[in-house]
Amino acid sequence: MNSKIIFFICSLFLYMSSLAQSEIYELRVYDMKFGVSEATLHDYFKDALIPALNREGLNKVGAFEESGESLPKKIYLLIPYESMQAYAEINDKIEQDGKFLSDSEAFSNLPVDKIPFERYESRLIRSTWGFPNLVKPDDALNQFELRIYESSNEDALRRKLKMFNENEFEIFENVGLHTVFFGKNISGGQMPSLTYMLAFKDKAEHEKAWAGFGKNPEWKRISKLDEYTNTVSDITRVFLKTLPYSQL
C-alpha cells in the first residue's frame, strides 16, 4: 500500500480516536436581574437540576459566581459530559425524569417578574488530546480563573490549540497553574475560541504561578516561534468563586 495512503489512514484513525475520547463541557452563564432574589435559582440548581444530573452519573457539576461585584451579576454552571452523545441522551432523559419535574415545579411555575435571570447563554466546549479530562481540584483550591482566548480565524485557533497540546500544559504543571478543564469552543459566542479554567488557593499563589509562567525558559522559546505568532486576538478573564453546592 502506498506510504501516503498509510499515513493518511493512521492520521485519520488518530483523529477519530481523539474525538471519541473528547469530553464535552456545557458552560452556562446566567445574567441575573437586578433587584430580584436569586435564591430560587440556587434552590433549583441545588435541589433539582444537579441531583438529576448526578442520577445520570455526572458528579462534577461546578457552580460559581464572580469574585468581584460586577453588574449585572452572573452565575456560572459547568456541566461535564463524557461525549456529545451523552450530552444529548442525558438531557433527553432529564426532560422525562419525574423526580426532576417534581423537584423543579416551584421554579418552573415562578411568575415572570420573579424569574431571577434575564437569559442564559450555553456554550459547548470539546476537550483536546493534550488535556482530555476534567480534573477536580483539591479542596484547598476554591478560587478559579476562567479564560477565553479568541482567535482571528480557524487557522489561528488551530495553531494556538497545538501550542497548548504540545507545550503549554506541561509548563502550566511545572509552574503551579492547576488546570481544571480545557477545550475548543464548538458553539456559543466569541467564536472561534478556546476556553479553560484554572484553580488556585489565593491571589498570592495565583500571581506567583503566572509570574513563573512568564519567566519559564520553554515558554520564552515557544512564544517566539513563527508558527505561533498572531494566534490570539483577544482574551476574556473572569475570576470566580464556588457556590456552596458546587461539586468542584
TrEMBL record:
<feature type="domain" description="NIPSNAP">
    <location>
        <begin position="25"/>
        <end position="100"/>
    </location>
</feature>
<dbReference type="InterPro" id="IPR011008">
    <property type="entry name" value="Dimeric_a/b-barrel"/>
</dbReference>
<feature type="domain" description="NIPSNAP">
    <location>
        <begin position="144"/>
        <end position="247"/>
    </location>
</feature>
<dbReference type="Pfam" id="PF07978">
    <property type="entry name" value="NIPSNAP"/>
</dbReference>
<protein>
    <submittedName>
        <fullName>NIPSNAP family protein</fullName>
    </submittedName>
</protein>
<dbReference type="InterPro" id="IPR012577">
    <property type="entry name" value="NIPSNAP"/>
</dbReference>
